[in-house]
Amino acid sequence: LLTVHCIERRRNLWAVVVGIDSYPNIRPLKYAVADARAFYNLLVMDNQVPPENVFLLLNEQATLPALRSTLGTKVKNKAGADDMVVIYFAGHGATERDMMSPDGDGLEKYLLPYEANPNDLYASALPMREVAYIFNRIRSERLVFVADACYSGASGGRTVSVNGVRANLSDRFLERLAGGKGKVIITASAANEVSVEKDELGHGVFTYYLMEGLRGPADTDADGLVTVDEAYRYVSVKVPEATGQEQHPVKKGSVEGQLVMGIVP
Questions:
Q1: Cα angle vertex 63, ends 30, 80, to 5°?
Q2: The whole model's pTM is what?
Q3: Percent of the chain at pLDDT exceeding 90
Q4: What is the spatial distance between Cα 260 and Cα 15, in angstroms, rounded to a whole number?
Q5: What DSSP string runs through the chain?
Q6: pLDDT in tens, 144-178
Q7: pLDDT digits over 118-136, tens only?
Q8: Could you tell me how far CA 31 lies from the centroid of its own chain?
Q9: What angle do CA 156, 162, 165 make, to 5 degrees?
Q10: What is the DSSP string of 5-35?
């Protein structure tokens, strides 16, 4: 009797984790690096993702060329269609008037790398239209982008005001990022809200509760796995509670089947 065991090829997880506190040209942040380290440790230590599969870029490592190279070349070349890609960014966001913006709000949104110059975002920051393009270049059918930044232009939090412009983080913008098969975007705050850091938590509020949920409390069906949907439901309750209803995480996009983000230790 011949028994043939068919072993499914192990699906790899690839991740890029970015945290920037010490911006030379912009008001520094306090806890973005702590957030990124916590997320990295969750992946590598709790979830047993091989360290060589996780690209960690902190402060001066997170330059614009490094972000482009890591996302647009390294991960693009390594991640196969069956793999899962997780991209985490903690740092400043900003907006700039741009009548060509496909979001219908006349504003382009940017993630700000280490060397970003608020007076020349076009040359020194990563526009979201390029982020969307990079996502579409990555072959993986399961991609999760988590951003603990904001683009509101309001004072405080993880945003940089450019000429007093207040951005409206439009649904169209998030849907554009999550467009295509199997992409999920979770942002720390909704339109015109600030993504808050709290000294008593030592983290951004959103990341603090995301980490807490992924370690088990968000596992509502008690199967030992925390899915993206479970994690989002958890932060959707905890973050508004912790911020006096002033910050509401947003999720866009969908994936067929379950996307596991955390393994309960």
A1: 105
A2: 0.87
A3: 51
A4: 14
A5: ------PPPPPPEEEEEEE----SSSPPPSSHHHHHHHHHHIIIIIS---GGGEEEEEGGG--HHHHHHIIIIIIHHH--TTSEEEEEEES-EEEEE-TT-TTSSSEEEEE--TT--TT-HHHHSEEHHHHHHHHHHS--SEEEEEEE------SSSSEE-STTPPP---HHHHHHHT-STTEEEEESS-TT----EETTTTEEHHHHHHHHHHTTTT-TT-SSEEEHHHHHHHHHHHHHHHTTT----EEE---SS--EEEE--
A6: 999 998 655 445 565 655 444 334 455 565 666 66
A7: 899 999 999 888 888 898 8
A8: 15
A9: 85
A10: --PPPPPPEEEEEEE----SSSPPPSSHHHH
Q: With 50 as the cut, is the pLDDT of residue 214 above it?
A: yes
Residue 48 exposed, middle or buried by CB count within 10 Å (0-12, 13-18, 19+)? exposed
| Amino acid (one-letter) located at 75 | V
The pLDDT confidence band at residue 195, using thresholds 50, 70 and 90, is confident
pLDDT at 15 over 60: yes
Give the up-direction half-sphere exposure of residue 55: CA atoms within 13 A in the CB hemisphere. 25
